Amino acid sequence: MFPKEKNGITAAVNALASSYESHIRPLLDAVDRLRHLKVMEEGINLPTIVVVGDQSSGKSSVLESLASISLPRGQGICTRVPLIMRLQDDSTLSTPVIHLEYKDKRVPTSESHIASAIEIATGEIAGSGKAISNSPLTLVVRKKGVPDLTMVDLPGITRVPVHGQPENIYEQIADIIKQYIKPQESIILNVLSASVDFSTCESIRMSQQVDRNGERTLAVVTKADKSPEGLLEKVTADDVNIGLGYVCVRNRVGEETYEEARIAEAELFESHPLLRRIDKSICGIPVLAQRLVQIQAQLIAKCLPDIVRKINVKLSHNETELDDMPQHLSSIGEAMRVFMQVLIRTRETLRKLMIRGEYDNFEEEKEMHGAARLVDMLNQYKKELPHDFPMKENFLMEEISVLEEARGIGLSNFLPRTAFLTLLQRKIKEISYTPKGFVNKVWDYMEGMVLRILDKESENYPPLQAFTRRAARNLIEKMRRRSLQTVKEMIEMEMVVDYTSNPDYMKAWTDLMEQREKFMEFLQNPLMPMVMNIKGVGCVDVGHLRQQHEGLADEAFDLKMRLVAYWRCVILRLVDVLALHVMYAVKNLVENELDCEVMNEVVNGGCGSQANGLERMLEESPATTAKRERLGKSISLLMESKEVVAKIMDKTSINVV
Ligand SMILES: Nc1nc2c(ncn2[C@@H]2O[C@H](COP(=O)(O)OP(=O)(O)OP(=O)(O)O)[C@@H](O)[C@H]2O)c(=O)[nH]1
Fold first, then answer.
1. Average of pLDDT values for 495-520?
2. In this structure, are 498 and 410 located in the same domain?
3. 262 and 279 housed in the same domain
4. ipTM of the assembly?
5. Residues in domain Dynamin-type G (predicted)?
6. Contact assessment for residue 398 and residue 545, using Cβ atoms and an 8 Å cutoff
C-alpha cells in the first residue's frame, strides 16, 4: 500500500506525497486547524504523535532527522516545553519557510536560526534556566521533501534534578508526559537509546501505564552506530511489548549535513557486521518517516468521526447552558418583566403544592408535598388534644370541691353554672398550648416552603433574592401573629361562653345520664363492687364517694356528664375552626398576600440612597459575566471547529457512524 524505500528520505516521501496528497494533507490541515483553535482546551483530544524518551535518548535528533533541520540538541535538558512540530511538504518552495507560534505570537525564522529561535521562545515560555512549562510551542516547517507530519516533542524524563532545576522536576515532567500520552487518540513514539536496557527506561514504564499492550506505541532505537552489539536481539525479543514495532536509526553526528547523515545511516545498516542482519524494513529514518505518515493517516481517519461527535455534544451542552443562564437585564422594564415571571411561577408552584396537591416536579421530595403535610400536621394536632374530658383526681372529687365552693342560698336542685364554667375554663387552659403549637408548626413549615420556592424561581438573580426572602419572612411572621391571635380569641371564647347548637350534645348528655340510677345504686348499696364502668369516663373507683360525699355525688355526677358531653363539642370546634383558619390563611397567602408583600418589598424596599430590587437586578455578578463570556467563546470555537471538520468530511469519504 505504501511506496517502497528508494534513495533516501526525499524520494520516499515524494512518492508518498503524490499518492496521498489528496487524502492526508486535507486531514492533517483539519486537525492542525483544530489544534490551532485550541479545541483540546474543550476536552476534545486530537490524534497526536507524541515523542517521549528518557533524557538525551535522542528525541530531538530524531525530529531533526525527519525534518532535516537543526533543533537545540546536546547533553542535559534541552526540550523544556512541549514542542508541537508541524512538517509540511511544499514542493513549490526552493528555501524552507519556518515560523514559531507561542503566546499568541507568530515569529518567522530561518533554517540556520531555528535552534536559537526555539531557545529564545522556550526562555519566554518557561523562563531562563532549567525550569519546564506545560505551555506548548509550535514550530511550523514548510519545506520541499519533508514528510507531512505533526508531532509533539516532550521534555526528557529525568530522575535526578541537575543544578538549577526544581526539586520536583521528575513529577513536573511526568505530569506533562502523562497528559499527552493518556488519551486514546495519542500514538506514543518512544525514543530509546540502543546503549540502554529498554526494560530500565522510564519512558517505557510510563507508556506501559497508559498503553498496557503497547497497541499505541512505536519504538525508535537511536544511536545504533554507538551500540550495535545485541541490538538485533533486543528488537527481536521485544521484552518491553511494543505493539507497533521498532525502527532502528542513526541520527546526524557532529557537523554532518542531513544528506551525509542519511548516506552514513544507509551504509551503516548495509555494511555493519551486526547491524546488516537487522531486517531493512525496520531500519533508517526514511522507514520511520513512512511508518509515521501511514500511522498518522490511519489515526486521523479513525479518530475524526469521534471528534465530530464530541464537538457536537459539547456544542449543544454549552448552548443549553448558555440558554439556561439568566438573561442579562438592561432596563427597569426588562427587570420588571422578569420579576413578574418569578412571582407568577412562584404562585403557580405554591398553588400546586399547597392547594391542589399536584407534586409533579417534586415527586421524590415528600417534604415538599405541602397539602399532604398540612393534613399530617392537622392529624397530629387532633391526636394531641385530649378527646375525653381530662380527669386528674379521684372520680368526681374535683366536681364536688368546685360545687362546694359554688354553693349559694337557693333551691338545691339547680346546678350552679359557675361550677360548670370553672371546670371548663380550668381544662381549656390546660390544653391551650396545643393549638398554639399547631399554628407555629404550620407557619414554620410554610416559611421553609415559600423561601425554597422563591429562591428556586429567582436563583438566576441573586440580588433579587435578598428582597424576596425579606418579604416572605415578614409576611409569614404577620400570618403567624394573626393565627396566634385567632387561637387566643378561640380559647378565650371557649372559656367565657358555653354554647353549642350541636344536637349531639343533648343526645350525648341524655345518653350518659341514663347511668345515673345505676351509679347511685353503686353508692348506696355496700354490697355492690367498688369499681364501676361508666360510659364516657371508663372504669372508675367509686368507693371514696360512699361515706363522705354521698350528698353531693348525685349533683357532681350530673355536672360531670354535662362536661363530658360538652367537651366533645369543644374539641371538635378547636379542630374544625383551626383547620378552616389555617387552610384559609394558606390559600390567602398563596393567592394574594405573597404577591403584594414581595412586590412592595422589591419595588419600594430600597428607600433613600439604596437601590430597589429592580435596580439591583440590573447588576450582574462578575462570576455570571465571566461564565457567559466563557460559554460564548467556547461556542464560537466549537462552531468554527465544526465547520472545519464538516468541510473535511465532505472532501473525504469519512462518515460519522
Ligand atoms: N552517535 C549518535 N549520537 C546521537 C544519536 N542520536 C542522538 N545522538 C546524540 O545524543 C545526544 C542527545 O540527543 P538529543 O536529541 O538532544 O536528545 P533528547 O532526547 O532530545 O534530549 P533532551 O530533550 O534533553 O531530553 C546528542 O549529543 C546527540 O547528538 C545517534 O543516532 N547517534
1. 94
2. yes
3. yes
4. 0.98
5. 43-305
6. no
Q: Is 251 in the pocket of ligand 1 (CB under 6 A)?
A: yes
Pocket test for ligand 1, best of 65, 73, 132 (most atoms within 8 A of CB): 73
Residue 73's pLDDT is 60
CA distance 54 to 446: 67
Residue at 168 is within a domain: yes
* φ, ψ of residue 582 in degrees (nearest 5): -65, -45
Does the global pTM surpass 0.90? no
The verdict on 379 and 421 lying in the same domain is yes
Q: Are 535 and 580 in contact (CB under 8 A)?
A: no
How many domains would you assign to the chain? 3
Q: Is the dihedral of CA 263, 266, 271, 273 positive or negative?
A: positive
Sign of CA dihedral 40, 44, 48, 52: positive
CB 523 within 8 A of CB 553: yes
Residue 532: pLDDT band with limits 50, 70, 90: very high
Cβ within 8 Å of residue 576, ≥6 positions away: none
Q: Sheet containing 217-222: which strands, arranged edge to edge? A: 105-109, 97-102, 137-143, 83-89, 149-153, 48-53, 186-193, 217-222, 246-248
83 and 209 co-located in one domain: yes
The residues that bridge with 48 in the sheet, in sequence order, are 186
Ligand 1 contact, 66 CB (< 6 A): no
Residue 301 maps to a domain: no
Asked if residue 417 and residue 274 are part of one domain, the reply reads no
DSSP tag of 130: S
Same domain, 184 and 278: yes
Using the structure block, give the residue that is written with the C-alpha cell 509540511.
88
In a domain, 360, yes or no: yes
Residues 244 and 261 grouped into a single domain: yes
**Cβ of residue 80 lying under 6 Å from some atom of ligand 1:** no
Helix locations, 432-498, DSSP H: 433-457, 462-496
Cβ(60) to ligand 1 under 6 A? yes
- What is the pLDDT at residue 568? 94
The residue segments making up the domain with residue 640 are 319-325+623-653
SS3 assignment, position 222: strand
- Kind and range of the H or E element at 327? none
- Answer whether residue 114 shows pLDDT above 50: yes
284 lines ligand 1 (CB under 6 A): no
Q: Are residues 634 and 598 in the same domain?
A: no
Q: 262-278, pLDDT tens digit by residue?
A: 999 999 999 999 999 99
Q: Report the distance separating Cα 474 and Cα 429, nearest Å.
A: 30
Give pLDDT, residue 164: 66
Residue range 77-89, pLDDT digits in tens:
567 899 999 888 8
Bigger pLDDT: 366 vs 33: 366
Choose the residue to mutate in 50, 61, 226, 258 for probing ligand 1, maximizing ligand atoms within 8 Å of C-beta: 61
Residue 430 sits in a domain whose CATH number is 1.20.120.1240
φ and ψ at residue 101, rounded to 5 degrees: -125, 125
Q: Domain containing 165 — which CATH number?
A: 3.40.50.300
DSSP output for 81-120: S-EEEEEEE-TT-SS-EEEEEETTEEEEE-GGGHHHHHHH
Cα–Cα distance measured from residue 523 to residue 396, given in angstroms and rounded to the nearest whole number:
12
Ligand 1 atom closest to the CA of 250, numbered from 1: 31
